[in-house]
Amino acid sequence: MFCGTDLFRRCVVARGGPQDDPAYLQTKGKWPTMENPITKEQRQTMKRERLSEQETISALKEVPGWTLQAGKLHRELHFPSFVEAFGFMSSIALVAESMNHHPEWSNVYGKVTLDLSTHDAGGITSLDVELAKRANALLATGPGR
Predict the structure, then answer these.
(1) Fewer CB within 10 Å, N or C, the chain?
(2) Residue 112 phi/psi, 5° resolution?
(3) pTM for the complete prediction?
(4) Is residue 103 over pLDDT 50?
């Protein structure tokens, strides 16, 4: 469930994660959002260049559950409740903020729709693919489907 203590831990992880948290230690120090933390230097060097059609097709294979729709990476998620949907959105918001890359999204009760593209590049970039991967990593440990 994406609320309460679990949401707090996810939020802390998105911002760097405490190494002494028991849940963190139980997972051998590999919470999904920490496996490949984005440093300030990496964020500055990540391409904001639009991927070619072939690169986009190849990138889709790296993000199960995502499709290409209207020139954007697209995913629709269904959660058991509004609280869990909003909890997921709160978690991914912290990740997006740390990347300085923000999704287009909507939420109606337990449904969350995500569309990812880089506006200043005019299409999908490596930042969109990375944010999709991080959303998938959060979902792997939560109730979204």
Answers:
(1) C
(2) -125, 130
(3) 0.70
(4) yes
